[in-house]
Amino acid sequence: MKFHIIYVIIDKTRWFVNTFLPILLSLVVLISIFRLVYHFKDDIKFFTTGFDSGFKLSEILMLWKLAKTSQLSEPCALYWSLPTLEKGISTIITNAKDNGMEHSKKTQDFLARLYSYRTKLELSPKNKKGLSSTKYIDVGQKIRVILKGRGVFSSEVINNSKDLIISLPLQNNQITISGVDWVGMMMSVYLWRKDDAAYVFDTYVRENSMFNGKSVLCLSHTDNLLRTQKRRSVRCECHIYAQMYIIKSETADLKSMETQPGLKCLLEDISEDGALIRIGGKGVSNLQIKLQFTIGESFIVMSGFVRGVEFDQEKNQSKLHFECTCIDTPMKNAILSYVYNVIPEEEKEIIEAMDLAEKDEKDKEETEKSSTTSETLQNNETDISEPQTNVTVENQVQSATVTENTESNDVKNVLDLP
Fold this sequence. Notes:
- The longest helix is centred in the first third of the chain and has 38 residues, at 2-39.
- The protein has a 6-stranded antiparallel beta barrel with strand order 1-2-3-6-5-4. A 6-stranded antiparallel barrel has the order 8-9-10-13-12-11.
- The protein is α+β, with helices and mostly antiparallel strands.
- The chain has helices spanning 2-39, 41-52, 57-70, 82-98, 105-123, 179-182, 329-340, 345-360, 362-385, 393-397, 406-415, and strands spanning 142-147, 151-160, 164-167, 186-192, 198-211, 214-219, 226-228, 236-246, 263-271, 274-280, 288-295, 298-312, 317-326.
- The protein contains 11 helices and 13 strands.
């Protein structure tokens, strides 16, 4: 009888172990998983959002590191919010300065990756609405017109309604084709859309008319626009004086600082991979040069090539479209910080105060600024021509002039538009 009772107890125990124990263990595991998920819910949300948005694991890890370092309240905003990203970068810069690590390789490499991502985010097609029709071209948009066999012309959008109305195209600031002679002609139009990309489209001139007392051309609208040469970087307008050096030797150190005075020039816009340079005299394309200038407390050396030239014969000045091919990472980061205005909060307050003070005088100085800049550039040209420098852009490269096909030059000049 006792053995029977023991057998029954063992049998019931086995049944309990086989039936309820797995259930209990499963519940314990599930509860543990739920607790882990709850504890790391922000981490999981951040990573799943990143993968769902198409980000690479390396980018997600980089942004997660930024979120933790910056102690952001909403880390996921880094995927789409430029202000949040800039706030995070600003925190990194501030902390690095406080710890004396601002110029360390680790900090500069991390900033370089963040700036690269910031550029990618700003230029992402998801954040931009491309131009789908000529009906949406803004009034005041500068355009370049190619008329086959006649070269490149400059013009501007005067009005945009039933027709795309443009000013009478000029060639070297002169009217070389009368308005009547444009009628019926097929043209190719090129334009740079601000903070977007380059566009090109073909259209024909419907008529020559008058608009606000000026001779204009009425172009047919089209939805067939080709978006080309999207910028790899974001650039901003600036007013920075610099020294320019023409590189003649193939063995020259492109990153070293020059100690002798160079050709004086003015940077009118800048990015990490190029600049728009104004000089006195006539510039030359495909010229290898080095630029030296300062941004704040940072000394910058950029080397590269002049990819295009716009010469103003009346002012005897040239705009050089410069492509940077060699620059150190810390200097590149300094330029990006300037372009994106990603600076510590205390420095922002100082700059804001200076900007407001400058704004008070803006109306009075605007007229003076234009004349002062022109006068300074003319003086710079005179300095360049003095015996001590004994060099001008034209003299140094007069043997480097290359004759190219006219139609090829037309297209090249258009695509070099700022």
